[in-house]
Amino acid sequence: MNPHLLLVRNGLDGAAPWLAQVLQEAGLNVVTISLHELDDAAPSDVVLLRMGHDNPVAACWQLHKRGHRSVIAVGGSPSSKECIRLLNAGADYYLDAWLLKAELVARVRVVLRLSTWLGKQSALTEVEGETKEWSPQPPRLARTFAEREVAG
């Protein structure tokens, strides 16, 4: 099955068409949507989007909660500070929108491989004396931060 990618064009005005074209030419199934359409979108293997400064923790948690397997935060220019902020907020990966074509495709494929592998994994863990199965999706750390944000 061909992985399904959603590319959110908001904030990526000049880069979104180029990103979609490069990924489609590499054989990936990419659908470009608006941020408003993302609320009603069916779960995808990867969501690529530019994240604002409002609440990236809650944004990442909501995307995972809705069934999107991986979130790639896309930046318009390389910035270590932005990368660190978004990865710490719960993005699964960060990439610059203007990478060389081959590198862009390779990085997205890495995320697809890892998310597919993680989706098949489970771990047995002991919780309050009982053995329970834990699944890595959605990320527990992002959920914890999102719950703290909502609680105030």
Structure description:
It is a single chain. The chain has 152 residues and is of the alpha/beta class. It has one domain (4-151): 3-Layer(aba) Sandwich (Rossmann fold), CATH 3.40.50. It is built from 6 helices and 7 strands. The protein is globular, with a radius of gyration of 16 Å.
Concise structural overview:
The chain is an alpha/beta fold and 152 residues long.
Key terms:
152 residues, alpha/beta, Rossmann fold, two-stranded antiparallel ribbon, 22% strand
Please specify the SSE layout and strand pairing.
Elements (H helix, E strand, L loop, with lengths): L3 E5 L6 H11 L3 E5 L1 H4 L7 E4 L6 H10 L4 E6 L4 H10 L3 E4 L4 H20 L2 E5 L2 E5 L5 H12 L1
Parallel strand pairs: 1-2, 1-3, 3-4, 4-5
Antiparallel strand pairs: 6-7
**Annotated CATH topology:** Rossmann fold
- Text of the CATH class: Alpha Beta
CATH architecture: 3-Layer(aba) Sandwich
Terminal Cα separation, in Å? 42 Å
- State Rg: 16 Å
Q: What gross morphology would you assign?
A: globular
Spell the H/E element sequence.
EHEHEHEHEHEEH
Q: Mind telling me the CATH superfamily name?
A: Response regulator
Major beta sheet, specifics? 5 strands, parallel
User: Approximately how much beta-strand content do the residues carry?
Assistant: 15-25%
Regions with little confidence, pLDDT below 50 for 5+ residues: 134-142
DSSP helix fraction: 40-55%
Structural class: alpha/beta
How many helices? 6
- What is the number of E strands? 7
Please, what is the average pLDDT? 82
Number of domains: 1
Query: Widest sheet: strand order?
Result: 2-1-3-4-5
